[in-house]
Amino acid sequence: MTVLVTGAGLIGRLTAERLAARGDAVVLADVRPPPPVAGDVTAVVADVTDFAALAAIVRTHGVTRIVHTAAMLSTGIRQDPRRGVEVNVLGTANVLEVARQSGVARVVVASSTTVTYSVFGSLGPEPIGEDVRMAVVSERPGSIYAATKLAGEHLALVYHDLYGLDTVVLRYGAVIGSDGGPSTSVPGRLLDGLIAAGRSGRTMVLDDPYLVWGGEEEFVDARDCADANVAALDASRPLARVYTIATGRTVTLAGFVDAVRMVLPDLAVECGPEPATGFAGFRHRRPAPSSPEAAARELDFRCRHDLASTIRWTAFGRVQPS
Ligand SMILES: NC(=O)c1ccc[n+]([C@@H]2O[C@H](COP(=O)([O-])OP(=O)(O)OC[C@H]3O[C@@H](n4cnc5c(N)ncnc54)[C@H](O)[C@@H]3O)[C@@H](O)[C@H]2O)c1
């Protein structure tokens, strides 16, 4: 099969490498020239908001499946909300419409567990399922980023229901890990900062309200997200259509810092009192981990990497076993 991976960011690159390694033809598209990746991957420059460019790629390369990771993340959207909506909502609509017109066999759409964060205030201690009930007015998404991701999920599901397009949505938890470049995500920036401080002997002052959290939060390794993308491309009966990609485990901020200190013992951190709010400035603390059960059942996927493994990989790079 020929797979188009949109977005040559952290998860897109790792996904492209995995697909190429098993012999799939892979086209990796990004609005910026994609950095080199391992394996036989065709890199192209394309903006997902440009429908004609996407259609030309699908036609020229005979694309049969798509993994859509291209997006602006929450930090970028805070700086340019209009462009964020354009890339995340129109870009996803373009990918789905190109897939429909071209008879693409499956589209995997990257979403985020942040779509559920606004309901944390009304959830109990049970693992959080995918089909959370959300009161449209009082529990609307807690950020523009989450709103764009939810819109993308709805579009993917409606394209399935109306047109029979085979769509699978993956909600990754807070993604950490790095294959070398600087992180664009909030959790990635936190881990990069802690690792840099641990290496340099400088104290990291944790005063950015987006980088701290009260209570517990869950994290997922980017390599697991890439494996989940491959599993979602292959799954024979993805009936739920929406899956959480998470470990089922959570950690406090202090526990996260301690885990980095296990790898870099010189790490020193200065932090204010524990915030009353949850992760990345969201209003509520997380009441429970997300349930990874639907992904295990229907995608045959479970996360393989724990926090310690992700920290070692991010700190020491590719020499660590993946
Ligand atoms: N990193 C996280 O914490 C996290 C958590 C949950 C979900 N996600 C989702 O996972 C996906 C991948 O995230 P990532 O961590 O690899 O992020 P990333 O920032 O490393 O990669 C995103 C890529 O999309 C590209 N892009 C942006 N606008 C584009 C456009 N108009 N056309 C084409 N490409 C464009 C960027 O250049 C970048 O290379 C995203 O959809 C993101 O919303 C990420």
Could you characterize the architecture of this molecule?
Residues 3-245 form the NAD-dependent epimerase/dehydratase domain. InterPro entries: Epimerase_deHydtase, Lipid_A_modif_metabolic_enz, NAD(P)-bd_dom_sf. This is UDP-glucose 4-epimerase. This protein has a single domain, classed as NAD(P)-binding Rossmann-like Domain (Rossmann fold), CATH 3.40.50. Helices cover 39% and strands 17% of the residues. The chain has 10 helices and 13 strands. It has helices spanning 10-21, 51-61, 74-79, 81-102, 144-163, 186-200, 222-234, 253-263, 293-298, 307-316; strands at residues 2-6, 25-30, 41-45, 65-68, 106-112, 167-172, 174-176, 203-206, 216-217, 219-221, 242-245, 251-252, 268-271. The protein has a 7-stranded parallel beta sheet with strand order 3-2-1-4-5-6-11, sandwiched between helices. The longest helix has 22 residues, at 81-102. The radius of gyration is 19 Å and the shape is globular. The protein starts with a strand and ends in a 6-residue tail after the last helix. The relative contact order is 0.14. The mean pLDDT is 96. Bound molecules: nicotinamide-adenine-dinucleotide. The site of nicotinamide-adenine-dinucleotide (NAD) has 29 residues, from helix 1, helix 4, strand 5, strand 7 and helix 6. Nicotinamide-adenine-dinucleotide is lined by residues 6-12, 30-32, 47-49, 69-73, 87, 91, 110, 112, 172, 174-175, 184-185, 187-188.
